[in-house]
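G.,

No rush on this.
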Amino acid sequence: MTAVAEHSRTDLFAELPQAKPSSFAQWRALTGRVVWTMATKGELVVAFITPLVFTLGFYLPLRYVMKFQGIDYAQFVMPIIVLQTMSVTMLSNAQLAAFEAMTGLSTRLQTMPIGTLVPFLSRISAGLVRSLTSLVGALLFGHMIGFRFEAGVWQAVLFCVFSVAVGTVLAVGADGLGSLTKSPEQLSQALTLPTLIFGMLSCGFVPERNFPEWIQPFVRNQPVSQFSFALRDMAADGVSWGVLWVPLAWVVGLALVFTPFAVWASVRRA
């Protein structure tokens, strides 16, 4: 009787089609879930409005001071506004990864027939959507204060691509930290301090000559300043290879360090 019952159950499921998991479909579903959550909870609206806060906070207090120094501050400050909006994406990715680890979702997904890198790639893809939304907002509000792409369409495209590349690399590293930390609040506080330090001690807000001489080498050579130099040239006369190769090396170097770390943190089993 038992053998007959087992044979009947086998026949019952024999007509069902064989499951063929698709990593692409899984990535699309998980990415859509995160993007839909961001859209319904107003996070994309916040991502769009955040550049306005940075624009008002950075441009208005210093525009007259910089005008006396012969600097078009709208053109000068726009790169750091864009970079600051990209840092918000970094923080959001870190919080998302930490939340999924804290709630056990990451562990649950590891027990399911889902591609190993699918959850990680879905978070990065959702972060890319946030970055693009913030970039559109930054360029719109920048245009309102007088920022223009004076070097042509291709340099403008390069400006956007490079900005998103920086934001994505930072988001990858932050995702790895979030997967390990499992504490969104503590991680957000830990990442905010270096973001402020590198932002304020950079050539994004004021020229290098405005800093004390003893700290100028650090200010000039740190990555945020190098990113600002390249983006500023892309918007003005066009960036040369002599200027671009250093920030490009920073992006590639950070990607080579952050990506293996983030992948390991995402796929490891607690």
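When you get to it, here's the other one too:
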Amino acid sequence: MSSFKELLQASFKSNDTEEWLDVHFTRPIGLVFALFWNKLNVHPNTITILSIFLGVAAGYMFYYPDTQHNIMGVVLLMFANFCDSTDGQMARLTGKKTLIGRMLDGFSGDVWFACIYLAIALRLMNDNIPNTDMKWGLWIWAVIVVAGILCHSPQSSLSDYYRQIHLFFLKGKSGSELDSYEGQKKVLAELPAKGSFWARIFYSNYAKYCHSQEKRTPEFQKFFKQWNEMADKEEYKEKREQVKNEFLAGSRPLMPYTNLLTFNLRAIVCYVSCLINHPWIYPMFEIVVMSFMYIYMHSKHEKMCASLTEKLK
């Protein structure tokens, strides 16, 4: 029988892509939950759905300015995140992986933060803008739209893409969830005309998600296309292995940015800003600090891919 430590290691995506806080806090708790739910034969997708309800409840609590409600919001969002960790860990340990589960996983985080942004906007509408006598009014909605739709959403999706790319080169296709727009279009086209309404919605949205990732990474697309074209040519085997190692060496320092741009950092900033009753700090942090990290990560990755494309020629 495997020890808890061995199971914990097996439940990681990889050591390269795990964040310190997750390794030492979220993942151990998630594993305890995973072992418990697995004994009850609960599917990971059910736990993901539970996380959605917890995240929505957390957003509702952040609407209120008092400390008690905000502490409840912190606790609820932490448990939503534990559930989010649990479903992935359980899926990796039991093999209960589904594309719908992967899409639900991304959808759940979007719902949590949509509710949090909504709560912050409603909470601030009648408050004064700091150091002025002017109320936020409709301006806070403009800030929220920029923070949530123009910043948060692309940051999270590209971070996820870069992690899956890294896992692909580290572990191969079986250890990654890297998908393509063309691949998802083919799946969609092969679905039966009748009885596949929900499947069509899922695959259509997922294809669009993949397409948005690919549009923002032109240099990686060129590199990956050339890499795949050389896959069956024995004379390029040594060169591909060398370039793969160079890719991983260049990608590894960017993995902390993919983690910072997903959950933990933005959740901590959200907790603190709401608890000190200055929730406007969170969307502004998203727009300024997180966007700077996103631009840096994206630029470094694209430059690395352009350089490696030249080496494959």
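The chain has 13 helices and no strands. The mean pLDDT is 91.

Enjoy the weekend,
O.
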